[in-house]
What does this fold into?
Amino acid sequence: MSDHDAHVDEHFAGSNKLFTSIWVWLLVLTLLEIFLAYRPMQLHFMLTILLGLSLIKAFLIMAYFMHLKFERLSLILTLIPALVVCILLLLVFFPDSFRSQGLRYQYKEQPPVAPAPLEEP
Amino acid sequence: MSTEAQAGHFPAMDWEGGAFPYRVGHRKLGMWLFIVSDSLTFSALLIGYSYLRASNVWPTPFPFYPSIVFSSVMTFCLLSSSLTMVFGVSASSKGDKAKARKWILLTIVFGVAFIVLHLIEWQHLLHEGLRPFYLPEHWVQVFSVNGVPPSPLFGATFFAITGLHMFHVATGAIYLLVVAARINKLKHEDVEISGLYWHFVDLVWMFVFPLIYIMSVDIGGHLAAAPH
It folds into this structure.
């Protein structure tokens, strides 16, 4: 076995300038999300855009800050697809939540209310 | 790209012993596997929360000030802490331990700022009367739809998800404090691993912030207009 086989990749790719520009992009995307919060739009549309932006931010952080882009492809393929599949399995339940919307118990009286606030105004 | 590519180097050689599969040490691989499992924990909580939201009348009580302002500053704090952490890992890779320690301490400062702001946010909501299983009475009045009152689980989902995240930030801050204190005895890989954990905490917030805060913005200021 040569030394190369036992070598752990210690090379840390990416300059400080690159990281700063990624940070700026993350801030821009965050400001965009906050701006969109106050735009009137349909719920599904808003949710799709927000999740899309969050996924982009997540991939930027994973690829550059967590250095995943510079690791071996086999590590990415081991970690990410399994995670994505498990999340998709969780999402399978959503049609059930839409179905149960119509089955909500119709209150005949108000539900219990909160106890008195911590201090009197 | 990785620097160890050689002619005739087959991936199968990674598994024949004497090599590091994936070319990372076992500690780093362990941290990655932990991050994947913790991502699933947060995914389960967030998707459970989304399920509840999709099937119930849900209050949207967050005013621009203080809720959205505070949570935006908190997001800025976490993003900046990720940047300082990356600078710290970069300094550590060049062997500059003193500089790495300074960047890590700055990361901790941002993390603590996040926790303090978050606790103040919690205190605002608790003061209004929000509890894990009760809504304040004026929220029930304002956010009822066709006589159906909003779900009291707003509090449960809010405190559980943000509380678990805050716990991760706090333990991350302690972890980083230990790394900063012992940095001269630690290898660069260990600093990198602590960085991975911290970026994961930031990553989770990238999902918590839009789903919990932005989706519950009080557009139109209904709550402020209501007498209470």
